[in-house]
Amino acid sequence: MSKKGYWLVMLTVTDPEGYQRYRDAIGDAISSFGGNYLVRGGQVTNPEGSEFGRHVVVEFDSYETALNCYRSQAYQAALKHRLAASTGHFVIVEGA
Known about the structure:
By secondary structure, the protein is an alpha+beta fold. Helices cover about 40% and strands about 30% of the residues.
């Protein structure tokens, strides 16, 4: 059994309208790869002073699936909107 894969995202949104275009565009990519949002916005407390205001965690059945979703044509088409509308960190990690 393979370990789950996760997208861990910490962002500062600089253009809310542009970021909404990204959110609208990624739904098909996430769902077609079986992604499940564990965290998508919500309240945030930064006890150690993180500069990011938006946090997202997406779970996939495997690390490979998480990578494949990121590399997919559908996600890459949406990615340009996120890059233009935010700054931050995006990592893909294998679960424990």
